[in-house]
Amino acid sequence: MQSHDARRFHAASAPDYVPVPQLRSLQLERLTRIVRRAFDRVALFRRRMEERRLGPGDVRSLEDLAKLPFTVKTDLRDTYPFGLFASPMEEVVRLHASSGTTGKPTVVAYTQSDLEVWTEVMVRAFAACGLHRGDVVQNAYGYGLFTGGLGAHYGAEALGATVIPISGGNTERQIMVLQDFGVTAICCTPSYFLHLVERGKELGADFSKLRAGIFGAEPWSEAMRRRIEADTGVRAYDIYGLSEIIGPGVGIECFAQSGLHIFEDHFYPEIIDPASGEVVPDGTEGELVLTTLSKDAMPMIRYRTRDVTSIIPEPCACGRSVRRIRRIGRRSDDMFIIRGVNVFPSQVETALLAVEGTLPHYQIVLTREKGLDEMEVRVEVTPEVFSDQVRALEGLQRKLEQSLDHTLGIRARVTLVGPRTLQRSEGKAKRVLDERQI
Amino acid sequence: MKLRQLSLFLENRPGQLKLPCQVLGKAGIDILVMSLADTQQFGILRLIVREDERAKQVLEQAGCVVNVTEVLAAEVPDRAGGLGDVLEAFDQSGISVEYIYPLSSGHQGKTAVLAFRVEDPDRAAKLLAERGVHVLTRAEAFQAMGA
User: Fold this and answer.
1) Closest by Cβ to A417, choosing from B11, B37, B44
2) Which residue of A has its CA nearest to B71?
3) A180: how many CB neighbours lie within 10 A of its CB?
4) Could A419 and B42 be called an inter-chain contact, meaning their C-beta atoms sit closer than 8 Å?
5) Residue A299 Cα distances to A94, A108, A145, A303, A372, angstroms
6) I want to staple A106 with a disulfide (CB 3.0 to 4.6 A). Which of A76, A384, B83, B145 is the partner?
7) Residues A389, B41: C-beta atoms closer than 8 Å
8) Do B67 and A387 touch (CB under 8 A)?
9) pLDDT > 50? residue A101
């Protein structure tokens, strides 16, 4: 058994330490290539460039990136399924799709070379948290269309670790494997890990070999990390990624656990003011915008992540030259992530509308109970759905809950509330109350 | 034969019952009878008032969700087994009762008057009368309630 030393240098991590001037020139070289590729092959991008009277030749420095148009989530929906692909299908070797469960998902594509980039950044991510050959990695991210499972899988395998592709769910089996297979590192959402730990305690399971957790796919906080680390002795690392960019592996914490290093030789970060779209200086909070510098099948130019963070200007104690962003605590739009699933309030609305055919006023309240995210949907009672009979109202509640479960794939509790009792701002309902202590 | 009942949705939290009562008070509308059904999450307040249309209007203006339903007012002998006998008549007529609450309690050998919420009040009134149950007219019911 090897020691868990996050400071030990891993050969795959070399690009993390490239001197800054060399890194910037590599970024510019890659940027000019990818902008040219997107312009030549992606109709939407070319149109937007032409509307601004811009051509690929106008990108001569990294600062010039700020002139280019943004790409947003709805662009993927509007061009569903393959409209943003820059490679012919013969070169696309993998498709993934967003976890959005109603309407059309967002589809992302990878060439062989894209998969190699993905694996490379995941190896660098695992190496940054001190994993190496000899580690036994329980990969409890979902395998399938979701990028989490396969992204972590190939990265850990390429690192030389022993991978257990257990996927999500089945807590008791997870606990048995964790204990019996001598698992040293686990990949899952932080809330699911807390759930595993609590259940493990009840079952008297021994997790003493587990040393590292690579947690992502939902927002979590320093307080949560402290709780995990104090309760379990496991080092808890925050990993960041999104399928539109590549999946997990866009960024990761190192042993310093002080912000997430972005693998910016592949994913170029900018922070903008979400209202004006202007780039803000390093250190200023704003919306994270990412440009893929080396992804061929689906180049993303200035993709607005909606994640709110800032770039940390100071160098990191670990010596990496790739810059860090602060942990992401919130998003600039109202999409929220619960138990690893992306949910838009509009989906909740759709689910509620499927019942009784009326438009109820509603509010989503997110709480965290015993480490697990809970979703409550408060629905205002309207004269159309109100009844003098208790069982009719209870039946309505049940129908709404079933519809939410059916639409979102997650259980939510429905509470009926009085009319006009839900908080509104400027006449507009405040849809999401996130009361999770993260 | 039938009484119009107002039903109001109440959230299960402090202060919820007070609002509709004060709204009616300000409008000079007297609550003749009230009944409250409560669950863990919400309550349903049922009211009998004289001016039900106006009451509904002022309550709705105050932001309440109001629903009007009809209930039967029937006499129940004020003696041991009185309600059992009346329910036997419901049973034999094949009428199921959603809920019951008292409109007026009997005293000194008189009869009590209860409100019965049933699916089809007109049909129920006819069938019950055939079995000897006295279903009160609106005027009789208001009289029994002391209004």
Assistant:
1) B11
2) A388
3) 10
4) no
5) 15, 10, 19, 10, 35
6) A76
7) no
8) yes
9) no
Exposure string for A262-301, b = 16+ CB within 10 A, e = fewer: bbbbbbbbbbbebeeeebbeeeeebbbbbbbbbbbbbbbb
Would you say the C-alpha torsion A36, A40, A44, A46 has a positive or negative sign?
Answer: positive
User: Which range has the top average pLDDT, A170-174, A188-192, A246-250?
Assistant: A246-250
Cβ within 8 Å, pair B44-A416: no
Quick one: closest CA in B to A415, which residue? B41
A365–chain B nearest CA distance, Å: 16
**What pLDDT score does A368 carry?**
87
User: Which residue of B37, B41, B66 is in closest CB contact with A416?
Assistant: B41
Which has more pLDDT, B76 or B108? Answer: B76
pTM: predicted TM-score of the whole model, two decimal places? 0.64
SS3 percent helix, strand, coil of chain B, rounded to 5, is 30, 35, 30
Nearest chain A residue (CA) to B47: A388
Nearest residue on chain B to A382, alpha-carbon basis: B65
Instruction: Indicate the SS3 state at residue A214.
Output: strand
Separation CA A177–CA A138 (nearest Å): 8
The ipTM is 0.84
**Which domains are assigned to chain B?**
2-69 (3.30.2130.10), 70-144 (3.30.2130.10)
B30 touches chain A (CB under 8 A): no
Strand order across the A362-369 sheet: A413-417, A372-380, A362-369, A432-434
CA-CA distance, B3 to B70, in Å (whole number)? 5
Q: Give the separation between CA B9 and CA A172, rounded to whole angstroms.
A: 43
Show the domains of chain A with their CATH numbers.
11-333 (3.40.50.12780), 337-434 (3.30.300.30)
Cα–Cα distance for residue pair A402/A355, rounded to 1 Å: 10
Are residues B65 and A415, on separate chains, in Cβ contact within 8 Å? Answer: no
Query: Is the model's pLDDT at A102 over the cut of 60?
Result: no
Q: How far is CA A88 from the centre of its chain?
A: 27
